[in-house]
Amino acid sequence: MHSPTPYEITTLPPQQHPAHGAMLAHEIPPGVQLVTLPGGIRTLAYTHQPPAETAQQAVPAAAPIPTWAKTTALLTPTIGGGIAAAGIGLSYAAPGLIAMSHALWSAVALIAAGTIALPLLLRTTRGRSRRTAPTHITQNITATGLFGRANGTINHH
């Protein structure tokens, strides 16, 4: 099987000493490795880490979900359902509410008309009674004793 890279990656064991002028293993910076090229020459080169190693390092530890977030997540559908139910209830009640508002406006108009019409009606009836002669009523009441029966007469003039 053919490998995707034309070189072989090797690392120096810690106890092996490199040749004169070469870097020691602890001196090699991160991401740089000793590479053997197809011609047999060994050199330092930047290499990519295999995807399996990066995937293991990149995955952070799962944090627990806070209690307030769980409570909010559980209450959200309930509150949304309540708002939806209220909206449906108002849509069914809308014709009745409109009729009730018309009835209230009618009652307000009736009260307003009554407060204007009643004084006018009283003025017109008082005016007629003053034009005619006033009626005199005389009443005579007689009684005998403390607990006696009272008798009386009413005279209109």
Topology as a string of helices (H) and strands (E): EEEHHEE
Strand ordering within the main sheet = 1-2-3
Topology, number of strands: 5
Mean pLDDT: 79
Q: What fraction strand? A: 15-25%
Number of helices: 2
Poorly predicted regions: none
**Major sheet details:** 3 strands, antiparallel
Shape: rod-shaped
Q: Helicity range of the residues?
A: 40-55%
Q: What would you call the structural class?
A: alpha+beta
How big is the Rg?
55 Å
Please describe the structure with a list of short key phrases separated by commas or semicolons:
157 residues, alpha+beta, two-stranded antiparallel ribbon
Describe the structure.
By secondary structure, the protein is of the alpha+beta class. Helices cover 46% and strands 17% of the residues. The protein has helices at residues 51-58, 67-131, and strands at residues 8-10, 32-36, 42-46, 137-143, 150-156. The strands form 2 sheets. The chain has a 3-stranded antiparallel sheet, with no helix packed on it. Strands 4-5 form a two-stranded antiparallel sheet. The protein is rod-shaped and about 150 Å long. The N and C termini lie far apart (141 Å).
Topology of this protein?
Layout: E1 8-10, E2 32-36, E3 42-46, H1 51-58, H2 67-131, E4 137-143, E5 150-156
